[in-house]
Every structure is written in structure tokens, then in C-alpha cells.
Amino acid sequence: MAGGKNVEEWTRLFKDADTNKNGSLELEELKKLLENNGSKVPPSVVQHVFISFDGDKGDNKITLEEFIKGLEAIEENIKELTSIFKKHDADNSGWLDQKEFANVIKESGFDMSEQEIKDLLQQIDPNNDNKITLEEFFNAST
Q: Which InterPro entries match (predicted)?
């Protein structure tokens, strides 16, 4: 469970985003919340987040409880990905080179050839510097 400070902040965000004040967020309200907080999230990702936050009920609205639960899951995922990244950043450079990235892939249980790993690296490395930053690692993992 997230700390009280996070829950308070998330509750404030939720209430601000609930523009029609019905106690839940619709897809458009979630989209505006993300946009207002500087996120440039593609519509397909917003839809995915909405569906995953909406939970088992699938009632096309996100309650405060679902919102907090969803953000807690994201927070946990970020912690886990950061831990994996730092574990494999052997030289503490702040990025993963091809060898370090290959170790992540192999430890994750994927059976990929060296060429397949190179190809994947190129796909998730938008600036083609053969270095995976933490941000690029997050983007590739979502």
C-alpha cells in the first residue's frame, strides 16, 4: 500500500479530474488528467490504462478506489523495473549497453539470439546511441 502522502495527492488529482463530479472518472476525464500533467500518452495507451484501472466490473468508469489501486500497481511496477535496471547497470553508468541489456533479456527467460537482441535494442533505442536509459527501459516495458 502506498504511503498516506501519495494517497492524499492521488485523491486530490482524482477529485480535480472528476469534472462532472459524479465520483468516478470516464475515459475523457482520464485523458485530460494525463494531458494536464504533461503526459503525451498515445490514445491506445490511455485506453489500456483506463481498462486496466476499471477492473473486473468493466463499468466504463474508474472509482477513487480503482484509481488508487491502479496507481499503486504502477508505482510498484516502476520500483521493480528500476531495481532490474540498476541491477544490470553493472558499471553504474545510468544506461544499459548491449551486453547489460542482453543480460536483462536472458534473465527474464527470453531465448533470443545475439542478433535478435541487437534488433530489439534498435527498436527501443530511439536516438540509436546503443544505450538504453531508464526512461527508454520503462517505455519498452510498458
A: Ca-bind, EF-hand-dom_pair, EF_Hand_1_Ca_BS, EF_hand_dom
